[in-house]
Amino acid sequence: MAFIPCENSDYHSLNYWNNRFAQEENYEWCGGYSSFQSLFNRYVPKTDSILIVGNGNSNLPIDLYNDSYQFITSMDFAETSIDKLSSKSPPQINYVCADMRFMKFDRFFDTIVEKSALDVLFTKDSSPWSVSEATDSDVKNTLNAVKSCLKSDGQFISITFAEPFFRKKYLINFWNNLAVEKFGTMFHYYFILCKS
């Protein structure tokens, strides 16, 4: 695969992502929308204002729009992905170039979604049992930013290939109620719903 980085730490490099997105049209971490659509429809009303963080070159915002979700904002820190996706998307979808660790949308969204964006933060560490201070800080900063961007009754959805145990120990510090659903056929992924 042409886009496998030389080292896992490259996943933290803006240059890596800009170069990758300049060449790669689409990649769906944890599968495409159809693989978890029934879960998403069950938990997210069509009228929700939705923010997708760390979207990359996923077609998720377009898929949500085509599934009758009306208020969609897609965010990534790589300008290349924002430019390419916005050029092929309906004008009703908003695109923002920002770092998920420091995003600021004061209590604006009903639902915030990440699909393997948190997974990237853990790639510098060799084991999920032993997380570096830098990773710990990045994850906590991201979740704190997510929480501050949600309405008081809002929800956060984390879609990941990581075992839920390793995510829940972070998520439980920000949300009281966590529900985990497994999806996928050949490979299994997790849909973690977080509510206060």
UniProtKB/TrEMBL annotation:
The keyword Transferase applies. Keywords: Methyltransferase, Transferase. The keyword Transferase applies. GO terms for biological process: methylation. SUPFAM superfamilies: S-adenosyl-L-methionine-dependent methyltransferases. GO terms for molecular function: methyltransferase activity. It comes from the Eukaryota. Belongs to the methyltransferase superfamily. This is EEF1A lysine methyltransferase 4. The lineage of its organism: Eukaryota, Metazoa, Ecdysozoa, Arthropoda, Hexapoda. The gene is EEF1AKMT4.
